[in-house]
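Figure 2 data, in text form.
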Amino acid sequence: MVELLGVVMPDIVAFFLIGELAVFAVIVAAFVLARLHRGRHHHYVMLAAFLVDMVVFKPLMTARAFSGVWGEYPWSGTSILPHMVLDSLALVAGLGAIFLGFRYRVKKDANMFMPPEGKMHRWLGRAFIVLWTITLLGGLRIFMDAYVP
């Protein structure tokens, strides 16, 4: 058990909480880089955040959710389904944005940028950020209900 900001929680829950908040900070930084037209930096920062989240955190959370560790997830009488649907939609939007980002990117010298044909990449990228943030907020609500008195 770990005490974090006065809240006692299992080690793995603290790992998820800190990790997902760190991924959120990196996603925000990547969005800012895109808005500042730093395409190459945006590309690698966003790809790193997406991969860390989808390869490390989401599989661990999913395994924990369906292992019965928490009993009915996240508490009696509730369902993980809305949270999982939002997370799945964020995954699809993220994969689509990555695919289109690779498809339409233009490299000139050491710079990388998105031409006007990449509008769908931008749209899916924004959809990913919105869906991912809503999923994070839902996860924080689950955390608050489960661990904060």
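Caption note: The mean pLDDT is 85.
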